[in-house]
Records
---
Amino acid sequence: LNATLWRQQEDAQMATDQSADVVVVGTGVVGCLIAEQALDAGLSVLMLEAGPRVDRSRIVENYRKLPPSIRLGHWDAPYPPEPWAPHLETRRAKEQEQYLQLEGPNARAYLQGYVRYAGGATWHWAGLSWRITPEDMRLKSLYGVGRDWPFEYDVLEPYYTRAEYAIGVCGPSDPALQWPANTKRSKPYPMGPIPFGPGERRLTEVAAKLGMINLHAPQARNSGAAYDGRPACCGTNNCFPVCPLAAKYDASSALPKIEAKGGKILVNAVVYRIETGEKNAIEAVYYFDPVKRSQRVTGKIFVIACNGIETPKLLLLSKDERNPNGVANSSDQVGRNMMDQPKLTVRLELQEPLWTGVGPVQSSSIVGTSQGDFRSRYAGALFRMENFARSPLGAAAALKKGLVGKALDTEIRRISACTAQLTVEHEILPSPDNRLTLSNKKDWLGINKPNIYYDVGDYVRRSAKEYTVPRLQELAAGLGATSFQLSPEFLNSDHIMGGCIMGADAATSVVDPDCRAHDHHNLFLPGGGAMPSGTALNSTLSMAALALKAGDALVDQLRHG
Amino acid sequence: MLFAKQIGQQIEKLSALNASLAEQVADLLAIARKKNARIVEDFFPGLPDGPLKETALAIISAWYLGVVTDAPDAAVFTYAYALMYQPTKDVMTIPSYAISAPNAWSAEAPPLSNMPEF
């Protein structure tokens, strides 16, 4: 770090009051939604971010400078971490083992990508914004597996609507084509759906013949018009690793709004300890600056929203005399029940051109397959065709054949058009054995790295064998596939859930229905970590809805005590 | 093509790995001239297997991929002008560049035989 720049930043930080009504750790979608809500209610807000704040243009430039084989599949690569805020790096095999310490039969499936930059993982999320269904919230009651949520869908619905307007979600207006289908919504989507490209249209036709409905995915992408000061999607087909336009919501675009409302954002501030006091209230959080000086930040309410891995890690790091298992952990559930959607992918070669790559990289999904009475035996699942432009893959494959001239161009065009990747993401059940603990290995600042044991379980394995792989084969046959290459093991979906699980009973859960820690009245742990069921669908909109619900609760708490 | 000369110079500069590059390029040019080659097919089939042909393929690969060697640390000398995007440019965008006006892209699948001019 440049010394002069660092000094300037330090002066700026010291000039800031290191106290606020609401202290928010993390600047992703959850932290940003709560910060804005608190500011709108007239409260002071201080946000702490472990990583740097970087311009969008820099990320786009980083992306374009990646070698072609790294541009696809290495979504972390345009986001080199600062030494004090490490996250997963996958560019080289050796780097991949550095930060996340993984073990268990499906260690590979917990190789979670997230970004420790201001804006968080929304920088490289796909933007898919599914609601979960009433049934998804009652797994135990209906199917005898997993956990029930401590409230019903009707309670969550208004927060879903508010989240859809807050981050700008586009989607169909026909209730039959919405998800959950034909279910009451308090408002329509703020924008209509994004149109399909040729590949998605074809998949939709093929799936329909098999009784599967490929829906326009609700997505936090501006459809046909600007929304909330951000421009409309122009099909740059680069939603991950970065939308160059900010047509897709990402939390980084929310930061200037937060500052305009008086919120303070400290970057390069790595929170490493939560301090408790009388009545087990949270008194302060401590952070390291990049030269490892410790700073203390006080507040009335604390929100820890630094993602499904970093939040439980911080709680475990903060154990003290009152909380010998870690903060918020009298139930011993912090760091347990780690979930994601275990994913399988299949590469297809096709006789006829399909043409993916037109429109967003993910814009539709088959989700009806996530529901049914079979869930008493095996996992529901979401099916999707990846819609990224396959021209770089076509070029690499055609060049390997030693072709030149027109033969090379013809083969690039053929492979780019006549190949596809289908994905299936499974619902995993919360299991106490899937557990995050503190590794003995330390990071650059001397903070324990997270260690995660992960087994997708028989529930998921049975689903793959009896249900999802056969359905993938049907879809592949319908598309006219001549080859079918299934991934040899389950992979990560980057939807981190469960580590601060919600419930009505303080003995078996970490947070209450408002994401407030059972053990600490002024500590909120909203986001994916709180979700009692993972479902087969992308988790962000549920995280955003829980953030807004927690935001209401904390504003109410500060106003009325 | 725009910037073709500059891109060619970049490839040359980045090809430090091959000490014989200048010599081999001269040999390839001599063969091409001898055959009055206007396109690569006019001279490529006549190249003997071995270092000269490998270098010719490496140069072609660099023009298509925008890197000399597609390794994790490779320096990219062009992104948007890499030829790999050209054979599908009637359908797919170059990722991170807009394909059309908002929501104005097409769901029509053109035939493979409609190779774009480039």
---
Amino acid sequence: VITRRGWSAVAGALLGLLLATASLNPVVVAIALAFFVFVSAEIVRFHLQYRRIGLDSFVLDRPHTPARLPVGSELVTGVTVRYEGSTAAWLAVSDVVPEAFPITVGPPRMVGYVRPGQTLSLRYAIRPALRGAFVLGPVGIALLDPLGFSRHTFRPPVSRRAATVVPAAILAPAIRPGLALFSRTALGIDLRRRGYGTEFRSLRPYQPFDDIRHMAWKRSRPPTYYVREFEQESRQTILAVLDISVPMSAGLWGESALDRSVEGAALLAALISRQGEDRIGLATYAGSLFQYIAPTRASELALVKLGDNLAMVAPRPGEFQFAKLLDELTKRLETPSHVFLFSTLQGPMTGLHLSLMKFRRRGHRLYTFVPRLAGFYPDPEPSPGASALDWARGQERLRSEYVLGVARAEGIVSLPFDRRGANGVVLRAYTSIRGGMVG
Amino acid sequence: MNRTDVGLLAVFPLLVYSTFVAVGSVSTFGADAALGVVAAFLPALGLVRRETAVLAVVPGVFLGATLFLTSGITVNDFPGAFGNLLGGWALGVPVFLGLCAAYLPDSPGSRTFLLVLAFLASAAVISVASVGPYPSSDAFGLGFAQLPRAQASALGVVLTGGAPSPVPMFRGTSSVFLPLALLAAAGALVSLLSVDPTKPPEALGYERVDPNVPEGRFRSLFPEGRARLAEATATELPAGAEAPSLTSLFVAVLAAMAALTLASLDADHLMPLVAGVVIIGLGSTLGLSYASRNVGKVSPRTPSAPLEPGTVAAPSEPL
């Protein structure tokens, strides 16, 4: 391929030659002819010299790239190209980096001179900044003419590499968080007693299916045996519900109400998975239940599944309908569950009281985490638009206070959060459920 | 100073010589004419201070446009200071064009065109000077502006099978002109053979380079990560043509020598030679460009032994 620079050289030389020819001066004509011949001969020579170069003249290798990357981390990646052409060449290697991966050390391009059998290693660092599934690559390899008149470009599709950017909490062991984020089991202080509660309720007669370890030996006198019964089951079922209607997209790129909610849900999933006792599920809702992952026993595999789903959560058209959501959950949840709902509660509240009564009658508990949307945008510089934003914030505060008032009047635990994130309130709610076992 | 600068320096003896000859043909050289010459030499300032480059070229472009618009088609003499100013610029026009070519090291097309134009201007001012002497630079300017018209007439005679005498652009060439012109041509070719290694790869027609994000703002989750940056090959940019490009240079010089020889033996065959070279050069360039765009697809080979394990797709890898 002849580059733009090459075409301009051909055009300039040709125009000069035409003008020189018009002068009828043989010296000037000869000089102009030399220019034109040089430019065209250089282009022809390059194409003939590298006519046998193809995709099979390059062997590509990418260094290990983890399939899952946490948001805000840094990854050093790149590509190594071994050149197997017959003559030495100037090679330019470039990698296509998604916009969601700002480059911290770069650039993802390089130029170098290689002989047959030699390699070029491109390395750069990126910071995944946005949840989702992305593809690194394909790598572009260009064989350059040193004068810039021509180049051959190759873009092998196999050089692409898929990567899923998950919330940071999903890969918490890699982050090495403070001790407070580990369960006591993980720390080696094993307080777990599988199937046991935390608060004693009463004794009841032994049944054949009871675990013999629950037996109250001191109170039992043959043939009557008692077992201890506890007020609260140790194994809790928790469902994280994300409202993915449009109002949740309020906020800056990567810091929206939904992003912060996903981070909170991911923290919850990570805590429960590593705590090892409880069951965790996930649901997303926009007008109807869009996604439902039934609560399952927490494990690494379940965490991977939740992490991948949380990575892909995005706003969808649809209205948040509180009563309809509770009805749906009442139908789906088989055991008494704690429902962690992340929502702006922006939608109709009709029928809420009745739905909530049914919901509670099945033994479920509801905790709402409400983003204060008025604070999800930074203060602008003094400008004519600032007063409009102030007005919008005022309206949003009024709406937020109203829905929180309605929720609290119904006895729903409501925990507002701002653009700094929901992690604090999620941690507080979960530790209160677990009676201080976590954190 | 790189090879581009050295090559361009070799061009200027011819340009300065032709200006010197032109100034010598003017008997009265006043302050207004001197100002015109200064306007032609002014772009030299822009080479030192690049931010003033456009400003330094503007007076010369204005004077040149005025000269050819007013006196190029019909004979419109400007007597007095303004006419002398225009004529002064015409005296220095070869240097003016050479300096403009020096402004464009990254654009071989524009540079080639301007250099050929500078050669033409040299031949033109020497030709106009040979008709002198002129009482003032005003008269020289008028003669210079009329030269393309006279040349067009001569060309018309040639194309209709006649033999004009004399050919306007071929007057006054002395024995000094040819060696200086060959030196200038060699210098111009050398300047084309080099590129500036301090320029980013897009100077070679490659892609745009993104600016870096400052380091140290983000934590690394992979302790070995930063160490991997040391594996990278250092970027190295070409400073000039490769050795095989000497073939192209040799072919170019051969074509020029053939043209000169033919011109001295049988000038009538110079035009067919030029036309033949243009057809062959342009045809092969376009043909190769078309062929290189239509390469069959071949899958690249994967390495026999991957350097590191774990390069698998996202869904199958555990945490």
---
Amino acid sequence: MATRKIDEKTLRVREIEASAKILALKIDAAARVISTGIKYGCLAYCAWLALQGVRALSGKITLANIALNFLGSISTNNAVCYTVTGGAVGWGYLERRLRKAKTETFQGRVRDLEKLIDPKRSSSNLTPQGDTNPMDEPT
Amino acid sequence: MSIASIALQTTLWLLIGWVLLFCCWRQYRIDLLRQKLFVLRDEVFDIAAAGQMGFSDPHYVQTRQFLNAMIRYTHRITFTRAAFAAFFGRKTLLKVKAPVDAIREMPKGPVRDKLLSVHGRANIAIGIHLFTASPLPAMAFVGLVLHLAVRGMYKAYSEKVGSDRTVAAVERMAILSQAA
């Protein structure tokens, strides 16, 4: 009788877990569609804006004129702005590369030392650089 | 500056903004949350290494598994998913037992407090991530707070004004002048 009760309880728990898994998959799929839509929708909007500008100017001005105008309009202030922005982005990129290299160097050592204490040590399954595992499909 | 160069510059800045927002900023927030969770995982490891609980203790194993899962799927912790889960998953998802529920049932002591603290800090880090990883919910959140603050101020002001004798006297004066 007691075994039957436990079985029913286990069955109920499994049922709840199964329906939660199905719901999680549905939510994941819907959220992925929305996130991708927003991401590429913004990019499409940028492209549409650029296209509108090109259409409005077509026949009136050449691409060379636009480029010359653009370069000619770069004042000293603007040039400082572009240089600082470009420099900051480059610096951020290099710092990030350095951090990943350091992570890769140290993670093995930490893992090995922890395994000496806890042989059953579980892992997060990230790449050695600390990035999302390609198997876990980045969104 | 001609219209053509303004259009070109605007498009260029929008594209730079898009790259910064959707590639750099989001990735940075993911790495930041992972780093916070790694620190918490190390903390749990240190508790076990200090002999306060065993490495095979189910509470340790479950907490570590929870943190590992969060670290692994940080890129999937998004505002959209959280909103969907809150709307549609209340009846189903919240019925699944979480590791923190088992920790709450532990006898009171320093280990229980430490594990609860780890779970609490992990939840706070995840909550902050939800609102900061994408600028849209962050802006919506600031807007909501401002809206509630202004609404509260307006409500408090109207209640105060409603009970203010000076305002009531001025109102009566206006009514009398209108009637005259």
---
Amino acid sequence: VTTAPAELQRPDVDEATETAAPWVTIVWDDPINLMSYVAWVFRRHFGYPEEKSLRLMLQVHEEGKAVVSAGTREEMERDVAAMHGYGLWATLARDGDD
Amino acid sequence: MGFGRGDHGTVLLQLDVDEQQLLTNLLYSVLELLAEQDAAADPVVQRWFPDAYRDDPAAAAEFRRTRAGELTQHKRATAVTVLESLDRPAEDGVRTLSSDVAVAWVAALNDIRLALGTRLELTGEDRTDPEDLAEDDPRRPALALYDWLTWLQETLVGSMP
């Protein structure tokens, strides 16, 4: 990881705001992905129990989207990339911006 | 036909020759599109690699710049794993897939369905039944194929260890 020096040079205020707001991964409803598959992806990637995976999948289906994980921006970029790898429609945003 | 649960976390797969050929062709289409250099505007490519940031085009572009290569490689490897498993001879018509290969299968079937569904412009739940289309409607065989792939993926998800 070669980005550490750049991180250190950033103004303190910037760093404070960036770390204060956690980020979230949002999965959006789409007409192609199967409900069973989406729940399976949540179980497999996040290790969520069956009940939680089904609940999140139903939230995506019925409300159009669901927050499926939260953490640092880098962690959420990894989760979003993994979701894209499985073919799910996922984005990340600052918590509260979704 | 289709997928079933095997012993010790494996998944069983039974396909006839035509189905194997059809899936092989579809997987090669996926690989061809992944290899295309100027396909960024293709709706299928956009569906495979959606914007990671909804309201921040610059951040979405940066995500794409840093992640697209890895994601493309992942999709390619997934399709190749499935093609290799189709290349191996079946025993009495049945293939036994390890859980890793089964995971590649379920993701590859999803990539194919995303491509086909995007081409068919499937946008909602209340889509046309292929049987309701005219005999010579070109969407009819494509929708029937899509439905078969949906059924296949559903049986696979239900058979995953």
